[in-house]
Amino acid sequence: MTSPPFRADHVGSLLRPEYLLTARARFAAGELDADGLRAVEDEAVDEVVRMQADLGLATATDGEFRRASWHMDFIYSIGGVEKVEENITVHFRNADGTLDYTPAGLRVTGPLRIDEPVFADDFAHLQGAVQPDQTAKLTIPSPSMVHYRGGAAAIDPAVYPDEDAFWDALSAAYRQQVTGIAAQGCRYLQLDDTSLAYLNDPAQRAQLAAQGRDAEHQHERYIRQINAALAGRPEGMAVTTHMCRGNFRSSWAAEGGYDFVAEALFGGLEVDGFFLEFDDARSGGFEPLRFVPPGKRVVLGLVTTKRPELESKDDLKRRIDEAARFVPLDQLALSPQCGFSSTVEGNALTRDEQIAKLALVVETAAEVWG
């Protein structure tokens, strides 16, 4: 493939180098100023872009090195969204038990807007760092992520008396982001969305229903609003979405195949490609891919970022063949199942193990598709 998503691709976040973590800690302690931190971040981004080029990846991201988390840095930058210290507890699970993630909450307290593209300066640096044969990708959370955890309870009724008004404003703000970053030269945009994967989990739907929310149809609203956010996007901008069931320090939050959302999602979401998590039995089978229409690409997340053990190339090829029973091989691509560092802490792998995983993706894709 010569346009995104590529045969060998990756989700976006990468393990932060130790010297960057040290700089962030010094900045938090008041020992390093903002310019000093940005200089260290620039160095780390330049280094990780070279690493991606050396591996033969056509996609280049900045590893999300300037963020604390994959989504909240962006969401708190939306005008009208306020950070509140009412921590949300998200229960994650792993092979050893459970792990709680407690990010700060959010509240919509004013009119929603994005006057200047979020991460514009960060993306400009990435554009200057990429090689001629690399495509710079910007990853941002989907509009759904502003709504999923808090719902109507997080929206000030004095600002938006009903959810329709909220959604109209949020989608309009996202259109400002899309057109603004496209004008800057972005040709590869990814909307990261855990909610559309979480909704496949009956336990997650039960939680929403207990809050009085329409759990059976929430995904349909999200699909409509993402489409509204992308309406009128410039010709030549590829947009993908990544849907996983949580990724925090090698742990996950939800389980279940894509069956519940598949028909509405694959048939209705107006994106060019879907990054899907398929690294273990928790992710379900490939049968939901039968709803993917011609022309849409599916990036199979078969290589896990949660464990350091390297997958077998033969096993990856076998699973690609299994997926090709439901969607043509020519519409498929390969990637890790998620980012390696959705939050600043990162998953339980080393940098060398991360590189080995990415190299495996590149080599396998070359052997499957040429």
UniProtKB/TrEMBL annotation:
Record protein name field: 5-methyltetrahydropteroyltriglutamate--homocysteine S-methyltransferase
Domain Cobalamin-independent methionine synthase MetE C-terminal/archaeal stretches: 18-365
A GO biological-process term: methylation
Keyword Transport: no
Gene Ontology MF annotations: 5-methyltetrahydropteroyltriglutamate-homocysteine S-methyltransferase activity
Coiled-coil annotated residue ranges, if any: none
Keyword terms of this UniProt record: Methyltransferase, Transferase
EC number annotated for this UniProt entry: 2.1.1.14
EC top class named in words: transferase
CDD domains in the cross-refs: CIMS_C_terminal_like (cd03311)
InterPro entries per UniProt: Met_Synth_C/arc, UROD/MetE-like_sf
